[in-house]
Amino acid sequence: MQNDIEKILISKEELENITKKLGEQISLDFKGKTPVFIGLLKGCNPFLTDLLKNVTIPCEVDYMKVSSYLGTESSGNITIVNDITTNIKGRNVIIVDDIVDTGRTTSLIKNLFEQRDAQSVTICCMLDKPEGRVVDVDVKYIGSTIPNLFVVGYGLDYNELYRNLPYIGVLKNEIYK
Ligand code: IMP
Ligand code: MG
User: Fold this and answer.
1) Which atom of ligand 1 lies nearest, measured to the CA of 104?
2) Does the CB atom of residue 125 touch ligand 1 within 6 A?
3) pLDDT score at 67
């Protein structure tokens, strides 16, 4: 375990089980369709990568870069830094993100994709922090529900660090500045 980590919340093995289950479920639910997975960068990686290894139906993948966070606080202002290049009109879109906290990011992107005439827009996230919710958003696929804690690892960062950890953990108090 890395020195800055207070405790591990979700282990590497648990993450493997979670992505396997989610990938299998999505493959069943979207059987006969060719969904487009749209990962929200940078946090969706490595969750999306592991999820895709367990998806057994034909699918496409694209990425969108959005930014909203500064330190441990959501700024509330969501900017699209890089848009997708896929034409999603009439497509079944699955938005993939690391965590749904206030719900602002995923609900904004869902509305945007609906305006672009996607046939369906489904949300899949590794973590759900329901206590942080400000905007009501329907998250169909959830890896794990966690309490209102700031977590890092497996794509999640604190000031751009810790995304590379193979587990999800909580930082030691002294790390926050
Ligand atoms: P929302 O718009 O508040 O739902 O925020 C979603 C985004 O905030 C996620 O994609 C993360 O980038 C970031 N975020 C929310 N909670 C955490 C956390 O505990 N650790 C790291 N990033 C977080
Ligand atoms: Mg993010």
Assistant:
1) 2
2) no
3) 82
pLDDT of the residue at 70: 57
Residues lying with their CB under 5 A of ligand 2, a single-atom ion: 43
What's the sign of the alpha-carbon dihedral 139, 142, 146, 152?
negative
Report pLDDT for 103: 94
Helix locations, 5-103, DSSP H: 12-29, 47-53
Catalytic residue ranges = 101
- Find out whether the beta carbon of 27 lies less than 6 Å from any atom of ligand 1: no
pLDDT mean values, one per 10 residues, the chain (177 residues) = 91 98 98 98 96 98 85 70 97 98 94 97 98 96 96 96 97 85
Listing DSSP states for 92-126 in one string gives: EEEEEEEEESSSHHHHHHHHHHHHTT-SEEEEEEE
Distance CA 45, CA 2 (A): 20
pLDDT at 174: 86
Ligand (nearest to CA of 42): 2
| CA 3–ligand 2 middle distance (angstroms) | 23
Confidence at residue 132, expressed as pLDDT on a 0 to 100 scale? 95
Residue 143's closest CA among 45, 2, 20, 35?
20
Domains (range + CATH), the chain:
11-150 (3.40.50.2020)
